[in-house]
Amino acid sequence: MSTKARARLQLLIVASLFLAPVVGAIALFFYFPEYIPAGRVNYGEMVSPARALPPLNLLDEAGAPKPETLLDKWTLVVVANEQCGESCKAQLIVTRQVRTAQNQHRGRVRRVYVAPTRAALEAARADLAGEHPDLVFVAEESGTAARFFGDTGESRVYLLDPLGNWLMSYPHPIEPRGLHRDLKKLLKISQVG
Q: What pLDDT score does 152 carry?
């Protein structure tokens, strides 16, 4: 083999080493899309596009309006039934742990318990306030919150941004590390709230 032929062969080998990954990626993308990983970086179920909250008639125990409750901070919302059962209580514990784990940013996070009636609100406060002193209790008697979040009877935690947009939801049981990672990322990149 001549020197010129050997040089050309080496050039073709080197060029094929650089072009093979590009050709492979193009083939994978266009001809074998089922092998492309569908990775995601968030743990919760993303609401896409984010949905702005409708006007809610939130009331405290005395019946005073509390419209600002779901605004100005990152908010973890639990929309409860008449009673807070075991899954509801487990979610409240996870949200408390995740809020505490935000360290210096925990003041930017609020936890809200939305009861369907003022009577259910009073019962929940009596049952839960001792264990959850930072939990904000409100009632929303029209059922608008449950309809907005698509109440399926399944216990969930909803994440709202400080502008009142619903961003994510977390079904029971919640993986605390996943919720913590999601919230930590959002607090890091957001200057709001």
A: 57
pLDDT (0 to 100) of residue 34: 77
- Model pLDDT for residues 6-26, shown as the tens digit of each residue: 888 898 898 888 888 888 888
CA atoms within 13 A of residue 113's CA, in its CB half-sphere: 34
Query: What average pLDDT does the structure give for the chain?
Result: 87
CB 34 within 8 A of CB 160: no
Res. 44: pLDDT tops 80: yes
Q: Token pair of 167, please?
A: 């961003």
Looking at the DSSP bridge assignments, the partners of residue 111 are: 76, 135
Burial class (CB in 10 A: 0-12, 13-18, 19+), 41: exposed
In the numeric block, which tokens belong to residue 7? 């040089």
Does this model's pTM top 0.90? My answer is: no
Q: What is the 3 state secondary structure string of the chain? A: CCHHHHHHHHHHHHHHHHHHHHHHHHHHHHHCHHHCCCCCCCCCEEEEEEEECCCCCCECCCCCECHHHHCCCEEEEEECCCCCCHHHHHHHHHHHHHHHHCHHHHHHEEEEEEECCHHHHHHHHHHHCCCCCCEEEEECCCCHHHHHCCCCCCCEEEEECCCCEEEEEEECCCCHHHHHHHHHHHHHHCCCC
Which pLDDT does position 15 carry in this prediction? 87
